[in-house]
Design goal:
The chain has helices spanning 19-31, 42-47, 50-57, 75-81, 93-101, 107-113, 127-131, 133-144, 170-181, 215-226, 254-264, 306-311, 329-339, 377-392; strands spanning 8-13, 35-40, 85-91, 119-123, 148-149, 153-156, 162-166, 190-195, 200-203, 206-208, 230-235, 246-250, 270-273, 280-282, 300-302, 318-325, 344-349, 358-359, 362-365, 368-371, 375-376. It is α/β, with parallel strands linked by helices. It has an eight-stranded mixed β-sheet, sandwiched between helices. It has a five-stranded parallel β-sheet with strand order 2-1-3-4-5, with helices on both faces. Helix 1 links the parallel strand 1 and strand 2 (35-40). The radius of gyration is 25 Å and the shape is elongated. Bound molecules: cytidine-5'-triphosphate. Cytidine-5'-triphosphate binds next to helix 12 and strand 16.
Length: 394
């Protein structure tokens, strides 16, 4: 994971039972090559001891304003000066209230008040505490003050109740921290994406499909969310987790995908067709299982071309197509761009089949072809988003 390589983070740990997840978060950050300086509040230390964080980060843990290890006794200022951001996980209701009002009665709160870097907080509390108008007021104020609030999650809580308030998992916080650092080139844009294969039923137990994994479409959805867009992801049958922050609509067939797209397209500024839509579907919709025979024939009919239909609409959103080809990439991809009247086509040569974690793509627009370096699909997706943001912003 290169996104956080060489970054410096102050990890504030306040007094909630979710502090145990902060130890895991510290480990993930260290693994991502981040220098982690842990600041524990007095209550935080009741849950996880300083020795745990020191062992995980390989660095001193800071607990008091009166720490004599800092030469100038200015830990409350110096610790944040070379940090990329302060991340408080867990952030208790009490600590959030302190932050809202600018209280500075311990090392962590003083650091936050004296900081010159961004502040991210991952709230963790009982659901009633989270819903309490006082907490909601505080959160709104913090957001207005430019603090990034990560989560909270919804689910089972340590107290035995279920609801909103639990701290996000360490991996989710890491993802959010990475997302925070991405340039917000799509802020305010509404993006509609299709992803994955479609499945065209032949009978109740058989169908036509293809091996598209959906990974590239899901990576693009995540990259768009990271870039500040509001994302709707229309997914064919895939086994992938929804990128947090994206709204997902599951469909099976091309016709369902088309209907879902047409319902959502008016509210989209950008449409990205990544789905490997089946070109044909059986003409007949057979209600019962077809019994086997030596020869079987099925009549197929062409499916609607969703992307071409969107691009041909009056007031069409900015449309991006994908072209996976096994040869003649440039001519086929550019041909599709012109035929479907698209400002941008992302082309790739399919040599090892679909479904890999890496991709190497070439972008085709009215200025010609631009090859992007090979990378994992999320890295490639981020580069595509940067390129399309420039074109869509014109
Ligand atoms: N697409 C679509 N609806 C379809 C078929 C394709 O929206 N029924 C979109 C895909 O999501 C992708 C692009 O169109 O963005 C692919 O174009 P297409 O010409 O259909 O590609 P292929 O199916 O690969 O075409 P061909 O089989 O002729 O190479």
């Amino acid at each position: 994971m290169m996104e956080l390589h060489g970054r410096r983070v102050v990890l504030g740990v306040t007094g909630g039972v979710a502090a145990y997840k902060a130890a895991e978060l510290a480990r993930l950050l260290v693994k991502a090559d981040v220098e982690v300086n842990v600041v524990l509040t007095e209550a935080g230390a009741q849950f996880v001891g300083a020795a745990t964080f020191q062992a995980i980060t390989g660095r001193p843990v800071w607990q008091t304003l009166w720490d004599s290890r800092m030469d100038n006794a200015m830990a409350h200022i110096d610790l944040s000066r070379d940090a990329d951001f302060i991340l408080i996980a867990p952030a208790t209701a009490d600590f959030l209230a302190k932050l809202t009002h600018g209280l500075a009665d311990d090392l962590l709160s003083t650091l936050c008040l004296a900081r010159d870097c961004p502040l991210l907080v991952a709230p963790a509390m009982n659901r009633q505490m989270w819903q309490n108008p006082a907490t909601q007021r505080n959160i709104m104020q913090l957001v207005n003050d430019g603090v990034s609030v990560l989560g909270p999650g919804i689910g089972e809580q340590a107290c035995g109740e279920t609801g909103a308030g639990r701290m996000l998992e360490a991996t989710e916080i890491l993802d959010d921290a990475i997302a925070f650092l991405q340039p917000k080139v799509m802020a305010g844009k509404r993006v509609l994406i299709t992803a994955g294969p479609t499945f065209e039923a032949i009978d109740p137990v058989r169908g036509l499909t293809n091996p598209s994994s959906g990974k590239m479409g899901f990576a693009l959805a995540r990259a768009c969310v990271e870039a500040g867009a509001q994302v709707t992801l229309i997914a064919g049958p895939v086994t992938l987790n929804t990128p947090r922050g994206a709204t997902r609509i599951d469909v099976t067939s091309a016709l369902q995908m088309r209907d879902a797209v047409m319902r959502a397209v008016d509210a989209a500024d950008v449409f990205i067709g990544v789905a490997a839509v089946a070109d044909y579907r059986p003409v007949e919709n057979v209600a019962h299982k077809i019994k086997k025979s030596l020869v079987m024939s099925i009549d197929l009919i062409a499916n609607p071309d969703i992307l071409a239909e969107v691009a041909a609409r009056p007031n069409a959103p900015f449309c991006v197509g994908f072209a996976a080809e096994s040869q003649n990439l440039a001519s086929y991809a550019e041909g599709k761009r012109v035929a479907k009247k698209l400002p941008l086509v992302v082309g790739n040569l399919v040599q090892d089949g679909l479904g890999g974690d890496q991709n190497a793509v070439t972008l085709f627009d009215e200025n010609g072809a631009h090859s992007l370096p090979q990378g994992d699909k999320l890295e490639v997706a981020r580069e595509i988003v940067k390129h399309l943001a420039v074109l869509a912003g014109k």
